[in-house]
Description:
Elements: E1 7-13, H1 20-28, E2 35-40, H2 47-57, E3 61-65, H3 72-85, E4 90-93, H4 105-112, E5 117-121, E6 129-130, H5 134-151, E7 163-166, H6 167-171, H7 182-195, E8 200-204, E9 207-208, H8 219-237
Parallel strand pairs: 1-2, 1-4, 2-3, 5-8, 6-9
Antiparallel strand pairs: 4-7, 5-7
Helix pairs in contact: 5-8, 7-8
The protein binds guanosine-5'-diphosphate (GDP) and magnesium ion.
Magnesium ion binds at residues 95, 97, 99, 210, 215.
Amino acid sequence: MTSSKKPLIIFPTYNEMENIERIINAVLGQDASIEVLVVDDNSPDGTGLIVDKLAAANKRIHILHREKKEGLGRAYIAGFKWAIERNYDFIFEMDADFSHGPEYIPDFLKAIEESDLVIGSRYISGVNVINWPMSRLLLSYFANVYTRIITGLPVRDATGGFKCFRRQALEAIPLDSIKSNGYIFQIEVSLRIWKKGMRLKEIPIVFVDRRLGASKMSKKIVREAIWKVWYLRLMSILGRLK
Ligand SMILES: Nc1nc2c(ncn2[C@@H]2O[C@H](COP(=O)(O)OP(=O)(O)O)[C@@H](O)[C@H]2O)c(=O)[nH]1
Ligand SMILES: [Mg+2]
């Protein structure tokens, strides 16, 4: 990519000591224009300290320290605001655990030229998930069918977290009123952008379960998603998502 557009990859982190340095380097290697922001919730394993050192040595690496673990949604909202203030053009959500392959970033950068939100999708053609237990795969797959039916959001993978936003798409939605976390956070942000009449595009990715570190997925995140899709539907009917 040779344009002067500024892409920023945001990694929310909580205890990603084994992954963080390698994933940052892999991402920066995709294109010379790319910068990285790590939003760390004071990880007890010292992820934030590792990134402090990397950031001191490389201007393309940034860190936002937050006091305590408040969930993925809160971390992303803080990261989005940071990115908007600094005028990044293309703002990515990406997991730090290698579930989202850095090699897809060029595909996102190409697709975002003609969209406002590009979503990396595990379910465009069949199921592209590696190493998840069947129970988790079924949960994810049917959660997506359920979400599509209830909210109308026209995407196959509404709960995935590998995304690229045009800055204007994030500027168009009220970030401060998004209180959700986890899966429902992913659904709510995409739904709000779609309701604005903006252009959504899904591109295929293969999702690989983490090999190092532990998942922070919890039953609470699943329960929140199940009842809150109805809440989003209600808000949508009342015209409150615009
Ligand atoms: N800052 C922050 N990052 C989080 C939090 N929960 C999860 N993450 C990060 O979000 C990404 C996805 O979380 P992960 O546990 O892998 O979820 P899973 O892939 O659904 O099992 C990883 O980079 C985590 O470190 C949180 O509360 N705060
Ligand atoms: Mg993960």
